[in-house]
Amino acid sequence: MRIRKIYVAEDIPDKDLGKDKKKIDYKLLNTDVIVNLDDGNAYRANFITLEKLIKELKNHRGAVGGQAKKYFWSRSMVIVNDVGKKELEPLIEYMIAEGDFQMIFEKL
After folding, report:
1. ∠ CA 43-48-52 to the nearest 5 degrees?
2. pLDDT of 37 above 70
3. How many CA atoms does the CB half-sphere of 88 hold within 13 Å?
4. Is the pLDDT reported for residue 72 higher than 90?
5. Please, which pLDDT band fits residue 52 given cuts at 50, 70 and 90?
6. pLDDT given for residue 15 in this prediction
7. What's the pLDDT at 59?
8. Smallest Cα–Cα separation from 32: which of 49, 48, 14?
9. Is residue 19 pLDDT above 70, yes or no?
10. How far apart are CA 83 and CA 49, in angstroms?
C-alpha cells in the first residue's frame, strides 16, 4: 500500500462559490482526511488538532450541564498537532507500516 494523494476536506475548493475557501489554520482544525492509495481505493478518517479539541471541550462544558459536562466523545477521532499535508503524509505512512491504517480509516 502506497499513498497516491491526501486530501484535507477544507482544501477542496467550494465549487458553488467558484473560488477557494479562506486561509486555513491547520493547527486549529477538525476535519476529514481522505487518502487515495495506489491500488485505487480511497479511505476516510476524522482528524482533530489538540488545540481544536481543547477549544471544543471548553465550549462543550459551557453548553451542557450535569453528567454530560464530564465527558466528550467522537467516533474515529485521531488527535494530532497539525493537519497540514506535510505533517500528515509521514504520519499516515507510519500508520500503514504499523498496520494501524486499516483500523483508523474507513474505506469509501
Report:
1. 160
2. yes
3. 23
4. no
5. very high
6. 62
7. 84
8. 48
9. no
10. 7
How, if at all, do strands 77-80 and 106-107 pair? unpaired
Cell numbers found for residue 24 = 486555513
pTM above 0.70, yes or no: yes
Q: Confirm if 31 and 9 have CB atoms less than 8 A apart.
A: yes
Q: Kindly report the length of the chain.
A: 108
Note whether 36 and 92 are within 8 A (CB): no
In this prediction, what percent of the chain has a pLDDT beyond 70? 86
Buried b (16+ CB within 10 A) or exposed e, 39-65: eeeebebbbbbeebbeeeeeeeeeeee
Look up residue 64 and give its amino acid: V
SS (H, E, C) 46-95: EEEEHHHHHHHHHHHHHHCCHHHHHCCCCCCEEEECCCCHHHHHHHHHHH
Burial class (CB in 10 A: 0-12, 13-18, 19+), 92: buried
Task: Name the one residue in this structure whose C-alpha cell is 506535510.
Answer: 86
Helix (H) or strand (E) holding 103: helix 101-104
